[in-house]
């Protein structure tokens, strides 16, 4: 586990979430008309202007749209402008092998990070060739072991669980089969430990902050296109690209907010029937 020990009694830990960047090998590549490298770079500029001293950054999957090494390189090059380390997990559009085998980014493939008295648990839910997610036995064992460690590690008190796929059904009819298929296995483990303060994900490209199953869940918008909630068939939302920040307090409280680009025009193909 990577450990970044900082006393977070004086001020909370500032964690940044970036998700669903969907980058291409060609920096001019567009998803439903939107140039994803351009909107991602603008979101990173926004983070740089608003977040002078972040402690850590998590990137929760769909880093690339085409899974090419060049697209991952674009991501890392852009992230280098931010003054904090990042770790990432794959989404359904990523290729885990490419992410793991790129030597320069091995440091980003972390299963667990300790920040102050918090542990950030990163779970890989990707299934090669599929849109939906699944937690393998390995990932479930990693989660269980990480949560169990709080009982024997005096430096740990709180846990934040991060994954790409939504473990709670999506908010639109077309989303019903694309989430985490074995979400109950995740929820069963989370219910056995009292250090879990939040579950963080992306994948459905929208803002959510709600309580369910005695847990708090956060979904974060993409740095590119947004999906309209509450509809039956696929539809784009014209809200701007965004990121999320979290303040992780030493007593386990979480403050969090989504920040969107201002003065940005969503130039997207609104007739698209899917992505
Ligand atoms: Fe995505």
TrEMBL record:
Alphabetized GO MF terms: cyclic-nucleotide phosphodiesterase activity; metal ion binding
Pfam families tied to this protein: Metallophos
Keyword annotations of the record: Hydrolase, Iron, Metal-binding
Keyword check for Ribonucleoprotein: no
SUPFAM superfamilies: Metallo-dependent phosphatases
Residues covered by the Calcineurin-like phosphoesterase domain: 13-206
CDD domains: MPP_GpdQ
The keyword Metal-binding belongs to this UniProt entry's keyword annotation: yes
Family, as annotated: Belongs to the cyclic nucleotide phosphodiesterase class-III family.
The protein, known as: Calcineurin-like phosphoesterase domain-containing protein
